[in-house]
């Protein structure tokens, strides 16, 4: 009975191995990393060196510079275009015997490392990158030491090439030492930096910068902002600010440094000119200035033009709403138009009557004198 069970187990195990091998031969492919510019040799599984083999890459015949030596394929001076899925088939049946995923790349060079504290006094972060692509998967190892003691390094969940470290103590005189090593299948390279705590403090830029015109002030702008939300303790570790502004018509900035204030009134703006405004932040005592905030634009208050009143409107106003005479003004004599006409007519009639009387008198008197002269002549 025991022998039967043992035999059954061996048969099952052999079947599993066969199935796994078949699955791997049909679908699986082993990865082979090679350096760019080198000569590459690929072996078709476990076939003998003198076996007759046909090679294909990505399903087509291999036509690049190649040398076939039995079950081996040799590629000369490979480059990025040489990467691909290589399959070998044993002649004459054409059965696939192996698959190789060839990945051509380069070993890493020294990574660029930078450390900064934008959450002082909680901790700092270090980030790194490669100046040149490797074209193959590359991993990074990070070690941080302070006073000969290794610190806990937490990989950032958002940024791939970044880690976070808590300050073990504040105001320490010991330097921090950070070692970042880049590793891939073709080689590795490391960069080591050391720094003092106070040299890496750099806040994030101020937030919510707003610039608004002041009513009836054509040369003033009111600027307000908020401290960076990443700065954890503004009360105990206050920030100072640096404001810069300029009109768009000029390239030269004007600067104002402010201590523990999140607002400022610009008083020397050009009337009617659009301004660009930015703010930076810094710890009161240590570290460096932040980057500039997002730029905002604003234009000082512009007076609205007064509306002119037409002559017709003025006449209507005078007729409908006459203004009363001042209390101290003397009353003036006013004569109705009809009365003036009556007086003028009476004067004219009187003058005409007088002239007629004079003419009549002159006529009568002249006739009498003429009759007297005639009588005298007869005598």
UniProtKB/TrEMBL annotation:
Entry superkingdom: Eukaryota
Ranges where the Ig-like domain occurs: 37-88
Entry GO CC: external side of plasma membrane; receptor complex
Spans through the membrane: none
Single GO MF descriptor: interleukin-11 receptor activity
Topology in the lipid bilayer: Lipid-anchor; GPI-anchor
Entry-linked PROSITE patterns: FN3, HEMATOPO_REC_L_F3, IG_LIKE
Coiled coil segments of this chain: none
Record bears the keyword Heme: no
Database matches in SMART domains: FN3, IG, IGc2
One BP term from GO: positive regulation of cell population proliferation
Family assignment from sequence similarity: Belongs to the type I cytokine receptor family. Type 3 subfamily.
PANTHER family hit by this protein: CILIARY NEUROTROPHIC FACTOR RECEPTOR SUBUNIT ALPHA, CYTOKINE RECEPTOR
Protein's name according to its UniProt entry: Ciliary neurotrophic factor receptor subunit alpha
């Amino acid at each position: 009975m025991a022998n039967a069970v043992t035999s059954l187990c061996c048969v099952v195990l052999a079947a599993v191995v066969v199935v796994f091998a078949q699955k791997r031969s049909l679908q699986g492919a082993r990865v082979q990393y090679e350096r760019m510019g080198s000569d590459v040799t690929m072996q078709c599984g476990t076939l003998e060196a003198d076996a007759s083999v046909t090679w294909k890459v990505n399903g087509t015949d291999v036509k690049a510079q190649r040398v076939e030596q039995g079950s081996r394929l040799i590629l000369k001076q490979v480059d990025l275009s040489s990467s691909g899925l290589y399959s070998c088939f044993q002649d004459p049946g054409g059965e696939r015997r192996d698959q190789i995923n060839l990945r051509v790349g380069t070993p890493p060079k020294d990574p660029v490392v930078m450390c900064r504290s934008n959450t002082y006094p909680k901790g700092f972060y270090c980030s790194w990158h490669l100046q040149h692509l490797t074209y193959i998967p590359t991993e990074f190892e990070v070690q941080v030491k302070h006073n000969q003691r290794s610190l806990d390094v937490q990989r950032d969940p958002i940024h791939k090439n970044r880690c976070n470290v808590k300050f073990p103590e504040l105001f320490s005189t010991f330097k921090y030492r950070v070692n970042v090593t880049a590793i891939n299948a073709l080689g590795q390279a490391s960069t080591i930096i050391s720094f003092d705590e106070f040299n890496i403090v750099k806040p994030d830029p101020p937030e919510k910068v707003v610039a608004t015109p002041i009513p009836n002030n054509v040369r003033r702008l009111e600027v307000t902002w908020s401290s960076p939300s990443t700065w954890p303790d503004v009360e105990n570790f206050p920030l100072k600010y640096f404001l810069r502004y300029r009109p768009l018509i000029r390239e030269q900035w004007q600067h104002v440094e402010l201590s523990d204030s999140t607002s400022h009134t610009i008083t020397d703006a050009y009337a009617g000119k659009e301004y660009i405004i930015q703010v930076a932040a810094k710890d009161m005592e240590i570290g460096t200035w932040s980057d500039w905030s997002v730029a905002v634009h604003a234009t000082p208050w512009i007076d609205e033009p007064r509306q002119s009143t037409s002559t017709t409107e003025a006449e209507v106003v005078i007729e409908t709403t006459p203004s009363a005479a001042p209390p101290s003004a003397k009353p003036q004599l006013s004569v109705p138009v009809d009365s003036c006409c009556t007086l003028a007519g009476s004067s004219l009639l009187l003058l005409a009557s007088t002239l007629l009387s004079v003419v009549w008198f002159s006529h009568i008197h002249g006739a009498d004198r003429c009759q007297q002269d005639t009588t005298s002549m007869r005598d």
